[in-house]
């Protein structure tokens, strides 16, 4: 199943994110999109009530917290080591975004919404001006919304030497995929 095949997902993502400037844009703005979406979704009420002894003030099971839990579980399934590192990051982000929502309400959401929009615009500029092709969002919505943060985190880890053999295999397959997308011509 391709959805849980990390290497195939990385190849697909890499074919749409190969220009160094576009990669850097994504490394900055994908985490911002994720965090602001958690804050925006934290405005929902608790969707799954928990017994009092399982409740934590800043992690009510609203849509923002549930989004973080789904991402964390999915990342652990795709890449257990990296996924386990992402779990506290995602839950910490959810707790802080819930805190901001509880403390500042609509002001926090207004700021998050504006930042969210600017971050998406930056992504599209990166694809149009530097990558020269439409974003993967148009071909694979699941990947654009769910997997992009994991891929960005892996980009950072690759910079520090994490799993170089995986990075080499993916890069070789990305080159083939780009050639295929370009109709056999190198760009």
UniProtKB/TrEMBL annotation:
Statement: the UniProt record of this protein carries the keyword Transmembrane helix: yes
One Gene Ontology cellular component: endoplasmic reticulum
Entry keywords, A to Z: Membrane, Transmembrane, Transmembrane helix
GO terms, biological process: sphingoid catabolic process
Listed InterPro entries: Mpo1-like
Segments traversing the membrane: 21-41, 69-91, 103-122, 142-162
The keyword Transmembrane belongs to this UniProt entry's keyword annotation: yes
Pfam families the record matches: Mpo1-like (PF06127)
Protein name stated in the entry: DUF962 domain protein
Taxonomic source organism: Talaromyces amestolkiae
Lineage of producing organism: Eukaryota, Fungi, Dikarya, Ascomycota, Pezizomycotina
């Amino acid at each position: 199943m391709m959805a849980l095949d990390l290497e195939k997902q990385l190849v697909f993502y890499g074919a749409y994110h190969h220009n160094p400037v576009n990669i850097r844009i994504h490394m900055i703005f994908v985490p911002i999109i994720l965090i602001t979406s958690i804050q925006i979704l934290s405005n929902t009420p608790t969707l799954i009530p928990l017994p009092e002894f399982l409740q934590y003030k800043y992690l009510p099971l609203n849509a923002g917290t549930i989004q973080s839990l789904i991402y964390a579980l999915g990342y652990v399934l795709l890449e257990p080591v990296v996924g386990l590192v992402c779990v506290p990051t995602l839950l910490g982000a959810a707790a802080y975004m819930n805190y901001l929502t509880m403390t500042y309400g609509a002001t926090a959401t207004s700021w998050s919404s504006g930042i969210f929009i600017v971050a998406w615009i930056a992504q599209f500029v990166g694809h149009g001006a530097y990558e020269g092709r439409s974003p993967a969002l148009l071909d694979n919505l699941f990947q654009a919304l769910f997997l992009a943060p994991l891929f960005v985190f892996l980009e950072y880890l690759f910079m520090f030497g994490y799993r170089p053999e995986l990075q080499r295999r993916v890069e070789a397959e990305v080159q083939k995929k780009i050639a295929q997308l370009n109709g056999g011509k190198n760009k």
